[in-house]
Amino acid sequence: MITSFPLPAGWPATEARARAVQEELRSRVVLGEQGPAPGTGTVTGVDVAYDDARDLVAAAAVVLDAASLEVREEATAVGRAGFPYVPGLLAFREVPAVLAALRGLATDPGLLVCDGYGLAHPRRFGLACHLGVLTGLPAIGVAKNPFTFTYPEPSGARGSAAPLTDGAEEVGRALRTRAGVKPVFVSVGHRTTLESACAHVLALTPRYRLPESTRRADALCRRALEEASGSA
DNA sequence: GCGACAG
DNA sequence: ATCTTGTCGC
């Protein structure tokens, strides 16, 4: 079923307003909190898939048991994308759909694992920060690319990490989740620390480069998009 | 001005 | 993100 996503208060219509919203909301990011202990409670992966031709966006939220990585609950939401993809403004394209999917969960999401950045962002307010602030949940960002940031290559061993930097500032970490495979780029979203975020990511990657939470959410939102496209 | 640029 | 064949490896 295709729905119309409710937009959060003050939702911007232009890029300039969107950047202003980021500048304003970033003061609400809570840093320094330890956050949930890796391997305990629940962890929720969120991801979004698109069908640009039909202007469809599908979001998925998959709750995993943090210890066993078994799926506890899943939810999806499909609707129209209300914002184009603009580097640095990804959240405005994905947040309404993700919030709709999260509202469909009965289980406590625990930690939110987002596909993209948190503090590793031009204005230090990436998708993971945005979702964290709007939901109040602890959140982290796990991206597949370093974006505009730089990092020294971490050693080839799983678990090795190197700082992801913007000038002299460490905005995240390049973390090797599989030996000899390109690292993932982890950053803090809300209510947790970079060390804890990296520990969570390692706990979520026993076998593949990307967190199980992300892989499950990715597969689910693609499926939801297929079903919606087929019946539209 | 031009290129780069999370998903 | 998405478009796409074959291919190497566990």
> Order of SSEs, N→C?
HEEEHEHEEEEHH
Largest sheet strand order: 3-2-1-4-5-8-7-6
Could you name the CATH topology? archaeoglobus fulgidus dsm 4304 fold
Beta-strand content bin:
25-35%
> What is the rounded Rg?
17 Å
Number-wise, the strands total 8
Top CATH class: Alpha Beta
Top keywords for this entry?
single chain; alpha+beta; globular; DNA-binding; endonuclease activity; magnesium; DNA repair; hydrolase
Provide structural commentary:
The protein has 232 residues and is an alpha+beta fold. The chain has a single domain, classed as archaeoglobus fulgidus dsm 4304 fold (2-Layer Sandwich), CATH 3.30.2170. The chain is 27% helix and 26% strand. It is built from five helices and eight strands; from the N terminus they run αβββαβαββββαα. The chain has helices at 15-25, 90-103, 127-135, 194-203, 212-230; strands at 42-51, 56-65, 71-80, 111-115, 139-143, 161-166, 169-175, 184-190. α2 (90-103) runs parallel beside α3 (127-135). The longest helix is centred in the C-terminal third of the chain and has 19 residues, at 212-230. The mean pLDDT is 96. The structure holds two DNA strands. GO terms for molecular function: endonuclease activity. Belongs to the endonuclease V family. Its cofactor is Mg(2+).
Topology:
Blueprint: H1 15-25, E1 42-51, E2 56-65, E3 71-80, H2 90-103, E4 111-115, H3 127-135, E5 139-143, E6 161-166, E7 169-175, E8 184-190, H4 194-203, H5 212-230
Helix pairs in contact: 2-3
The structure holds two DNA strands.
Main location: cytoplasm
Pfam family, one: Endonuclease_5
Enzyme class: hydrolase
